[in-house]
Amino acid sequence: VIAVPNGPSIGAYHSLKISGTNAVFPAEVSLRGNLTLDNVVSFSGKKIKLSGTELQTIDGTALINFNDLEIDKVSGTVALTKPISVDGTLILTNGRIVLGSNDLTLGSNAVVGTFDVNAMIVADGTGFVRRAFSSAGSYFYPIGEVTSNPAYSPISVNVTAGSFSNGFVSVSVV
Predict the structure, then answer these.
(1) What DSSP string describes the chain?
(2) Which of 65, 68, 111, 147 fits a 20 to 30 Å CA distance from 90?
């Protein structure tokens, strides 16, 4: 069982690495450092909050499938070093999540937050923001780039018809 850090002065783990089996997380875990998962963890009904002031990474050898993931950083970014999925809600309170060459697959819930150049998904590498569609509908992708001049370039996609068997809409900044 992953215990919640004690005391208001701590409030979050610095870095957390899970390599053993049967890790059980509390309802919410806050991290100020890196998250490394070398064994599959069930995040069903859980929220992971990344709130450090420096570069934070999400990495490891295991498949990473979050329920809710919140990015709330005063400074620095969150970088993916492997593909991840967020089946619940991706919450962009403050800060950027940088895909690089890795895909971020979203579930049916919306990405929520107040989006701008400081709170967005950076999709200027070869990685895509992906979302499965099972029927017609629209979806908003709060993406942007930082390769030259940082720019927030959101995309709204409206799927009006089609065959939806394992269908995805994937976006990035070119």
Answers:
(1) --PPPPSTTT-SBS-EEE-SS-----SEEEESS-EEESS----TT-EEEE--SS-EEEE-SS-EEESEEEEEEEEEEEEESS-EEESS-EEEEEEEEE-TT--EEE-SSPPEE--BTTEEEE--SS--EEEEESSSEEEEE-EEE-SSS-EE--EEEEE-S---TTEEEEE---
(2) 147
Task: Return mean pLDDT, the chain.
Answer: 89
Q: Which residue has the tokens 């620095």?
A: 76
Dist. CA 142–CA 122, nearest whole Å:
9
Closest CA to 37 of 26, 52, 48, 51: 48
Query: What is the distance between the alpha carbons of residues 79 and 71, in angstroms, rounded to a whole number?
Result: 11
pLDDT 10s digits, 3-34:
555 544 446 778 888 888 888 888 898 999 99
CB 153 within 8 A of CB 143: yes
CA dihedral 8, 14, 20, 26 (to 10 degrees): 30
Strands 151-152 and 143-145: antiparallel
Question: Bridge partners of 66?
Answer: 86
Among candidates 24, 21, 22, which has minimal Cα distance to 3? 24
| Residue 10 to residue 17: CA distance in whole angstroms | 18
